[in-house]
Amino acid sequence: MFKEGTVNMKADIKVSEEIIRNRLSQMIINEMCKKKEFKIPIHLALGHESIAVAVSAVMEEDDRLVLTHRNIHYNLARNPCFKAEIDEYLLKSEGLAGGRLGAMNLANERRGIVYTSSILGNNLSVAAGMALGKKVKEEDGIVIVVTGDGAMEEGAFYEGVTFLKTCNLNAIVIVENNEWSLATRIQERRCPIHLDRFASSLDVDYVLLTGNDVYAYITALKQARREAIERNAPVIIEVKLRTLGDWRLKTEEYPDGKFINYHAGASPSIEVSEWPLIREDDSDPVFVLSRYFEIGQLRNISCDMLNRLTGEIQ
Amino acid sequence: MKYVQHINELIRTTIDNSNPIVLYGQNISAGSCISGLTRGLKNGEKRLVINTPNIESTQVGIGFGLMLSGVSSVFFMKQQDFLLLGIDHLVNTYNFVRINEPSASFTIVPVVVDSGYEGIQSSLNNFSDFCSIARIAGYAITNRHDADHIVRTHLVSPGFRIIGVSQRLFQTEILSCENDPTVYNNGEIFQYYEGADITIVCFNFSFPQGMKLREELATLGLSSSLFSVNVMTPIDWLHILRDVSRTKKLIVIDDSKSVNRSCYHLTTEVYRECSIDRVLTLTRDVTDECLRPCSEEFSIDTNSIMKTLRQ
Ligand SMILES: Cc1ncc(C[n+]2csc(CCOP(=O)(O)OP(=O)(O)O)c2C)c(N)n1
Ligand SMILES: [Mg+2]
Asked: Minimal CA–CA distance to B72: which of B154, B143, B131, B8?
């Protein structure tokens, strides 16, 4: 049931299923956030699913993933048990981390997520230490560390990449660039930082990913991973994406509604549905799947998935 | 033997028995090797010695990253003031790492620059402040006995700690007593002497002042017990309280410039638990005078202590 004229006729439907699972899981969590079922802050990553699913798909046994406050998409991608994730957010002892880590620090060592920090920039240094640890132990695999366009402003980002390069450590540094840091856009808060030029100033390779095509991302990540390991060097991957779930707030000053960027908590503009499309353009990873498969097929998968997920947590 | 030489030898022998291990810091195997502290550290089988870039915050994070990978490390630091740049990791990263009781060791060895005349940005001597922010185990090295115990027991052992060394003492002959001290609570408290009249308890790096005071009081016919508290986080005071209950006179000496001095924990306990004749708390006057290059001398006037005791 491949769509005619698709980009890649060998696209694995399981990858698309994973995007849909990630999306629906987040939508269900969003509904629970609306009902204030969680005491802890949760940062949804609607619109970030492609990079997370791609990272999970290329990770090998010895790879290590290091995350940041917005980690739900990676945790969902790495962890097939939805209930364990929900239980963690509910701080139950059956949760993924026994209810001890909550959302902003959620790690899952058994599935390679070894450290997650809610302090911007902090995880770069820890990832650098882990990459060094791999070298000392002559262990296979690579350290993948995720950060944001806001977190990379921290000095720790500069220090971390410098150290990785200096010590010939292989690592993938993923910058999820959604152009926002909380309530400010890049232009509102800083001068541009040209990551490509920054990388080349340190003799570090740079890859730009845009368009949310999970299949293309998997190919690019596999290549970056291989090259980083061959060269014993870090690579910076900038992923341009849009965090979905924004809404308009009507006030006297803004009768047409003021744009509110989604940062954390419930998004009032998102509803869970059997077909979890949010936007009909490339900013939505679910939309991009329709380039590979018939909508009907994807809808069927999604419908079954929604039943499965809601059943799992009942 | 000089204080720094003794500690350097201890470090080298302890590390020889610990593999794999990463030893890192700025200029640790170059130039003066942190005034001799890290002299002679060599790469070896499963031992990596790294002169790192100047990235203190990241250096602290790296130790925790290594720990999470099961690799032990020691981060040597020329100046404790620079550790301020790594505080985020001391608290936040450590809080993540510690919940799984790591099997690897991570130790930071900063030089506490208390030698004077180094200026206002090279004078932070409040070792305990670093430790208290996240209940970090911290050990101050002040003499041959505590050096032997602390380095051998704690330099490489599961978990995280800070071991501070005093720059003021670097080129002095390392102090030692006739007899080995009694070590309480795995190196938290050392008791060097037992006396009938007074209990002297030294905090932070003030053991030399305590030694001197004990000797001077002895020439005046007073015999003192001498303790040194080498850790900075709240501890079990039982052994000191017992001694104070007997002597009924307590002198605490704390050279730290903090307002949250560790010695106050002890005095609070003493007032609560012991019937006592006199408590003397000898601390630095921390005034704006400290905000300029100065000697940072912390000396104790035995005569005025005697006067107070006689009153
Ligand atoms: C050191 C530090 N400073 C500030 C914050 C507050 N903070 C939390 S998330 C956030 C935005 C970060 O932006 P970015 O890294 O781009 O991630 P995004 O939320 O956009 O995914 C900020 C400023 C923090 N957590 N840590
Ligand atoms: Mg951002």
From this structure: B154
Instruction: Using pLDDT thresholds of 50, 70 and 90, give the confidence band for residue B253.
Output: very high
A137, B20: Cβ pair inside 8 Å?
yes
Q: What is the mean pLDDT of chain A?
A: 96
- Which tokens is A148 given? 């944001």
Residues B75, B107: contact at Cβ < 8 Å?
yes
Token readout for B231 is 């850790």
Task: Give the number of residues written for chain A.
Answer: 314
Of chain A, the percentage scoring pLDDT greater than 90 comes to 96
Domains of chain B: 3-166 (3.40.50.970), 182-310 (3.40.50.920)
Q: Does B103 touch chain A (CB under 8 A)?
A: no
Contacts of A118 in chain B (CB under 8 A): 92
Helix A13-34 / helix A214-231 crossing angle, nearest 10 deg: 100
Q: Is B30 exposed, middle or buried (0-12, 13-18, 19+ CB in 10 A)?
A: exposed
pTM for the full predicted model: 0.94
pLDDT digits (tens, 9 = 90+) for A64-105: 999 999 999 999 999 999 999 999 999 999 999 999 999 999
Of A111, A110, A145, the closest CA to residue A130 belongs to A145
Residues A85/A87/A88/A92 CA torsion (nearest 10 deg)? -160
**Mean local confidence (pLDDT), B86-90:** 97
> Six-digit token pair at B210?
């305590």
Closest by Cα among B41, B98, B26, B107 to B74:
B107
Domain extents for chain A? 10-313
Q: Say yes or no to pLDDT of A3 above 80.
A: no
B259 CA from centroid of ligand 1 (Å): 33
Which pLDDT belongs to residue B293? 87
DSSP B2: B
**DSSP code of B45?**
T
pLDDT, tens only, A101-148: 999 999 999 999 999 999 999 999 999 999 999 999 999 999 999 999
- Give just the sign of the alpha carbon dihedral B91, B97, B100, B101: negative
How far is the C-alpha of A29 from the C-alpha of B168, rounded, in Å? Answer: 58
Rounded to the nearest angstrom, the distance between the alpha carbon of A117 and the centre of ligand 1 is 11
Which residues does chain B have within 8 Å of residue A165's beta carbon, measured at their own beta carbons?
Answer: none
Residue of B nearest to A107 (CA): B96
Q: Report whether CATH 2.30.110.10 matches the domain A10-313.
A: no
Q: What is the mean pLDDT of residues A253-279?
A: 96
